[in-house]
Every structure is written in structure tokens, then in C-alpha cells.
Amino acid sequence: MLNVKITKEEFHYVAEYVSNATQEVKKLSMRSLHDMVYNIGRFVPMNTVHFHIPDNLTKSLLTTLKLEYPGELYEHKITVH
């Protein structure tokens, strides 16, 4: 299972990736954030990823997920904080 926790800082978003093998932190723009979601889905089955996202990203990130991965079952693995 890959956990991706996204938080908002002043001018960018911070994505923290945590899995059994690794932990990584990246600072991202809004565009880079959506690119990251797209790239994660290309390398990892989306139903093994748990997203923790801020409330202000709910609509845009869910829209991206539904467009890019319409057949995946990911809705139950998104926590809004």
C-alpha cells in the first residue's frame, strides 16, 4: 500500500509518499500535483494507493482521477482533511 499525504503550504503543495519500503517528500505546484497523480497511476495500481488530501483539492483532484482512471476503484481510498 502506498500512502500519499498532500498538504498545502504558502505557494505550493507538499506530497509525502510513504510505503513499506520508502518515504519521500516533494514540493509541487498545482500542475505538478496533477501530473504526479497521473504518473502514480501509470506505475502503481490505483486501488493500492491511499490519498490524504486537503479539502480545497477535493473537487480538482477527484475530477483528475475520474478522467484518468475511470475504471479504477479508488474513491474509498481518499481521506479529506
Structure description:
This protein has 81 residues and is an alpha/beta fold. It has one domain: Nucleotidyltransferase, domain 5. It is 31% helix and 33% strand. It has a five-stranded mixed sheet. Helix 1 packs parallel to helix 2 (58-68). The longest helix has 14 residues, at 30-43. The chain starts with a strand and ends with a strand.
Entry summary:
The chain has helices spanning 30-43, 58-68; strands at residues 2-8, 13-18, 23-28, 49-53, 78-80.
Question: What topology emerges from the helices and strands here?
Answer:
Elements: E1 2-8, E2 13-18, E3 23-28, H1 30-43, E4 49-53, H2 58-68, E5 78-80
Parallel strand pairs: 1-4, 4-5
Antiparallel strand pairs: 1-2, 2-3
Helix pairs in contact: 1-2
Any key phrases for this structure?
5-stranded mixed β-sheet; 81 residues; 33% strand; 2 helices; 5 strands; alpha/beta; single chain; Nucleotidyltransferase, domain 5
Q: What coarse outline follows from CA principal-axis ratios?
A: globular
| Main beta sheet | 5 strands, mixed
Q: Please estimate the helix content.
A: 25-40%
Order of helices and strands: EEEHEHE
Biggest sheet: strand arrangement: 3-2-1-4-5
Give the number of helices: 2
CATH superfamily: eRF1 domain 2
